[in-house]
From TrEMBL:
Gene3D superfamilies: Ankyrin repeat-containing domain. It comes from Athene cunicularia. This is Cyclin dependent kinase inhibitor 2C. PROSITE patterns: ANK_REP_REGION, ANK_REPEAT. Transmembrane segments: none annotated. It comes from the Eukaryota. Pfam families: Ank_2.
């Protein structure tokens, strides 16, 4: 610590909560999204408790759940889902978080998204690709196998 408030003290915690509350209250999409995209589930939780909307999109059409799925931040994804983040929210290219997780090969993230009954496994993005198609294209064999071995596979083919 150089001239700041020591981490872990009540003053640090109070200052952090005040800052996060102010950020969430202002609903500054770029700021809230950037902070939550860091993949820290505790910071995401505090922002969401303070009223941040988990479904706000940035200029690319990405909501936080898109970045979290793409980066494989499982803990932060769980937090977002607790606060009703939309698993079927589309980015500007028509990709769902499932598309991004499948493309990057994040098996655990794909599993968690598939556990949501409302997850549209067979959804096609603007190029006509499903999450299964992207997993095959990018040679994400573990995700391909997960989809083929699960009850979700027929839905992915529709």
């Amino acid at each position: 610590m150089k001239g700041g408030i020591p981490s872990g003290t009540w003053m640090h915690t109070a200052t952090e909560e005040l800052f996060l509350g102010a950020v969430a209250a202002k609903s500054q999409i770029p700021t809230v999204n950037r902070v939550m995209k860091l993949g820290n589930p505790e910071i995401a939780r505090r922002l969401l408790i303070s009223g941040a909307n988990p479904n706000l999109k940035d200029s690319t059409g990405f909501a936080v759940i898109h970045d979290v799925a793409r980066e494989g931040f499982l803990d932060t994804l769980q937090t977002l889902l607790e606060f009703k983040a939309d698993v079927n929210i589309e980015d500007n290219e028509g990709n769902l978080p499932l598309h991004l997780a499948a493309r990057e090969g994040h098996v655990r993230v794909v599993e968690l998204l598939l556990e949501r009954a409302e997850c549209k496994v067979g959804h096609q993005n603007k190029r006509g690709a499903t999450a299964y198609d992207l997993a095959k294209l990018y040679k994400r064999s573990a995700v391909v196998k997960l989809l083929e071995d699960s009850s979700f596979f027929p839905a992915a083919m529709n």
